Amino acid sequence: MREGHVAPPDLVSTTQIAYSKGGVRKIRWALQGTGKRGASDVRQVRMKMKLSQAQFATRFGLPPATLRNWEQGRSQPDAPTRVLLAVIAKHPEIVEDVLRKVS
Q1: What are the structural domains, with CATH classification, of the chain?
Q2: Is the pLDDT of residue 27 over 90?
Q3: Fewest CB atoms less than 10 Å from the CB: which of 21, 58, 87, 88?
Q4: Is residue 1 over pLDDT 90?
């Protein structure tokens, strides 16, 4: 790691730094560093909201099979989806509001 850089934050912290100076670089860096944690993060977000896989998938417009695959580690969410999941983790009501307006 180069001098002056810090370790990348976890997925949930990504939304907290999005508005700071140099936030775009920090977000990109955080997304590249999530690795295998993506599967457990998706499940943790869903469990914190006390939703089943089907309920979570329906509420946020995700295919249920894809959500299952993420949680079971068969596949990983892509970068834009990880950002969406980070926003859902912190502000699910905002995502639901936006989804209602576009549907």
Answers
A1: 36-102 (1.10.260.40)
A2: no
A3: 21
A4: no
Q: Which residue bears the tokens 């006390």?
A: 50
CA dist., res. 26 & res. 28, Å (int) = 5
| Rounded Cα gap, residues 73 and 39, in angstroms | 6
Q: Tokens at residue 10, please?
A: 């976890």
Specify the long-range contacts of residues 19-28, CB closer than 8 Å, at least 24 apart. Answer: 27/83
Burial class (CB in 10 A: 0-12, 13-18, 19+), 6: exposed
Inter-residue contact 77 to 11 (CB < 8 Å): no
Overall average pLDDT of the 36-64 stretch? 88
Q: Report how far residue 46's alpha carbon sits from residue 54's, in angstroms, rounded to the nearest whole number.
A: 10
pLDDT band at 25 (very low <50, low <70, confident <90, very high): very low
Question: Can you give the pLDDT at residue 40?
Answer: 65
Long-range contacts of 94-103 (CB under 8 A, 24+ apart): 95/60, 96/59, 96/60, 99/60, 99/61
